[in-house]
Design a protein that fits this description.
single chain; alpha/beta; Rossmann fold; about 35% helix; binds S-adenosylmethionine
């Protein structure tokens, strides 16, 4: 882990410096503008925003390092959980690569890379990151320009047989987050067919409600289709229990101490990025997943008036609540949302909430809402 964090720091500092060196104007205002285009002004964002040099520079100096570290920490977490079977220099395919973010994330995670292929609709955004390749001591990333929403993967994959495919923050750009599920499913199945039996596909999406829910709808379709398996965030429930109420969605958090250069840029742009938030899927081309072990924490710590602590998790049978007596073990109380608890703590009572049947009706937003006390935003509401 120390090696990973040291590579992360070197990479983040180099990316900020590289972006600053591209133009003498201050970087922070463009980072703030691009951040708004990803959040409050999403509807204003043009599909070809990466062709705008100022926005491309802002992406390079801020979103590239931020997302690369997020990908690296997710890969490390998956490796710890035994979900990744890649060798020490895995071959990577980065789809919707932008400035090669997935490839840099894999380098931060593994330290060594095999053959690397990047695909994006915008050639310039991939080229912008080429000077940073010197840092990762990788001499060649094959770059392919393609619109992956309309062009079948066979046209741009060639003979690529990656150990790991990364699609980070791109699925939501393939049409509206709530629509386009057929396109995303088709693309994922094509990519799953391209990886060897032990290969993996990592999908990362922003941790917002709309994106998290769109991703879990896709999860349910993949589970239903039985042509591949979902290994993470959960494997047990036939239908994601967090889709049951419209206010809930599945996402996790990864703690990170950014280097000073990045922290200053974030502050100047008015962005809080100390915690890396994500919604993700780890997929395997095998149709039968190993059984789910333990429970993934999908909510923050809650404490009722009597001091009883609770946390929501997803386990083999879907949603469960860990109930303390009255406190939960400190490791459970302090664990990051998204962490897998395995084994489950013996001192906590486990209450299982029956999983919804696939396609069960969704409760109306706010129905029976008992308030937000103790509930970190985005987790399931206290029942
Ligand atoms: C938000 S950026 C993500 C870049 C990188 N994966 C990351 O996580 O930092 C989305 C990228 O997807 C690319 N993209 C969007 N729609 C695409 C499409 N239909 N085909 C190929 N690339 C696409 C964009 O050009 C952009 O570089």
């Amino acid at each position: 882990m120390n090696d990973l964090l040291s590579r992360a720091t070197r990479f983040v500092v180099a990316a900020v410096e590289q972006a600053r060196a591209l133009h003498r104007s201050p970087l922070a205002p463009d980072v703030a503008r691009l951040h708004r285009l990803f959040t409050s002004e999403r509807a204003e964002r043009r599909p070809d925003y990466q062709r705008d040099p100022a926005l491309r520079r802002a992406y390079l100096g801020f979103f590239l390092p931020h997302n690369a570290v997020k990908i690296a920490l997710l890969l490390e977490r998956s490796r710890r959980e035994g979900l990744l079977a890649v060798g020490d220099a895995p071959a990577i395919l980065d789809v919707g690569a932008g400035p090669l973010t997935g490839i840099f994330g894999a380098w931060i995670a593994f330290g060594r890379l095999g053959r690397c292929v990047a695909v994006d609709a915008a050639a310039a955004t991939m080229e912008a990151a080429l000077p940073l390749l010197a840092l990762v001591q990788h001499d060649g990333v094959e770059r392919r320009t393609a619109n992956v929403a309309v062009s079948p993967a066979a046209r741009w994959l060639g003979d690529t047989r990656p150990d790991l495919v990364i699609l980070a923050n791109v699925l939501n750009e393939l049409r509206d987050p709530r629509r386009g599920a057929d396109t995303r499913e088709r693309l994922l199945f094509e990519l799953l067919a391209a990886v060897p039996p032990n290969g993996r596909v990592l999908v990362v999406e922003p941790a917002t409600r709309v994106h998290g829910r769109a991703l879990m709808l896709l999860r349910d379709r993949l589970v239903d289709g039985r042509r591949a398996s979902v290994l993470s965030p959960c494997r047990g429930a036939p239908a994601c229990p967090l889709l049951r109420r419209r206010g809930d969605w599945c996402h996790g958090e990864l703690a990170w101490q950014p280097p000073r250069e990045f922290g200053e840029l974030a502050r100047a742009a008015g962005i809080d990025k100390a915690t890396l938030k994500e919604s993700h899927l780890v997929l395997s081309p095998r149709s039968t997943p190993p059984p789910h072990a333990g429970a993934r924490l999908v909510g923050g710590l809650m404490r009722d008036a009597a001091g009883v602590e609770r946390r929501y998790g997803c386990g083999a049978d879907g949603l469960l609540t860990l109930v303390g007596t009255p406190a939960l073990p400190s490791a459970v109380a302090a664990a990051e949302r998204g962490e897998l608890l395995h084994p489950l703590p013996a001192s906590a009572r486990i209450e299982v909430t029956p999983s919804p049947a696939p396609g069960a009706p969704t409760a109306r937003r706010g129905a029976g809402r008992p308030g937000r006390r103790g509930r970190a935003a985005g987790g399931p509401r206290p029942r």
